[in-house]
Amino acid sequence: MRDLIRRYWRTITRPSVYFSLGFLTLGGFVAGVVFWGAFNTAMEWTNTEAFCIGCHEMRDNTYAELKTTIHFSNRTGVHAKCSDCHVPHDWTNKIARKMQASKEVWAKVFGTVSTREKFEARRLDLAENEWARFRANDSLECRNCHSFEHMDLTRQSPRAQEAHTRYLETGQKTCIDCHKGIAHRLPNMAAAQEGAQEGNGQKQ
Predict the structure, then answer these.
(1) Same domain, 143 and 58
(2) Which helix (H) or strand (E) holds 33?
(3) Has residue 149 been placed in a domain?
(4) Measured in Å, how far apart are the chain's first and last C-alpha atoms?
(5) What is the pLDDT of residues 131-155, one digit of tens each?
(6) Residue 158 half-sphere exposure, CB side, CA atoms within 13 Å?
(7) Fewest CB atoms within 10 A around its CB: which of 14, 52, 125, 154?
(8) 59 and 159: one domain?
(9) Highest mean pLDDT among 89-98, 107-116, 152-161
């Protein structure tokens, strides 16, 4: 048994002694294709709605709220799933978001929002973290589907026309600044405003 292990170890550590360069090149290429396919398949699986609502924290809270909005069901049949709004579509930003989301696994393991009560207690913090992320990337996920260049402002209300022209065209604001609560119920915003006022008071 020990000799067998040693033989395998020598083969793994010095493959060129036992295999031709062509075989190693072809084997490396095939292994790379298999790895890339498996990795990409796993990545796409984690973007599915079934994966996102696999835990009851999402299924019974944010997903239940999403089902009552126009992003879930509408006259044109366009359905936005979780990853459409919470995962960028381009590769670099998608990988960065996946790495960032790894800490959410810890929240699941330790039951940070495992009950409705815990979720509500953390709702404001969770929302503010997501709003800050949207501001930092200029609402990139919104722009996956919504493009200012293709908006027909003439079909919008006067208030929307004025806001989109003033803020989006000039870059003064981004989508999330005006469209909080578009897919999920807003947290207690009065508490958020009180916290902001207290923070301003301490700075002064």
Answers:
(1) yes
(2) helix 21-45
(3) yes
(4) 75
(5) 999 999 889 888 888 888 888 988 9
(6) 0
(7) 154
(8) yes
(9) 152-161
If you search the block for the tokens 């366009």, which residue do you land on? 78
- Residue range(s) defining the domain that contains residue 103: 54-190
List, for residues 106-130, the tens digit of each pLDDT value: 888 888 888 889 989 999 998 999 9
Give every CB contact of residue 127 below 8 A, 6+ residues apart in sequence: 180, 184, 186, 187
Q: Kindly state whether residues 183 and 110 are assigned to the same domain.
A: yes
Give the predicted TM-score (pTM) of the model.
Answer: 0.71
The token pair at 187 is 């947290």
Neighbours of 87 (CB within 10 A): 20
d(CA 3, CA 16): 20
The Cα 189–Cα 107 span in angstroms is 24
Among candidate residues 113, 144, 126, 104, the one with its CA nearest the CA of residue 180: 126
In a domain, 61, yes or no: yes
